[in-house]
Amino acid sequence: MYTYEKIEERIINGKKVTVIIRANTPSQSAIKRCVETMSMILVQVEQRQNQKNSKVLLHNLKRG
After folding, report:
1. CB proximity list for 21: less than 8 A, separation 6 or greater
2. I want to staple 26 with a disulfide (CB 3.0 to 4.6 A). Which of 2, 18, 30, 64 is the partner?
3. Cα–Cα distance, 45 to 59 (Å, whole number)
């Protein structure tokens, strides 16, 4: 079952045809899961970047 379905009549090459447009759109729970996943990924990227910056800072402090 599609979550979106639209039926149109169009003239194509001089003939009247019925065009059916069907699409699956994500549910609210699917959108929520996607947002939660993206948020977790962003947090992990920020943590890795902070660790990398800390290592560079520590290395620079040791050098001089």
Report:
1. 4, 5, 6, 7, 8
2. 30
3. 21
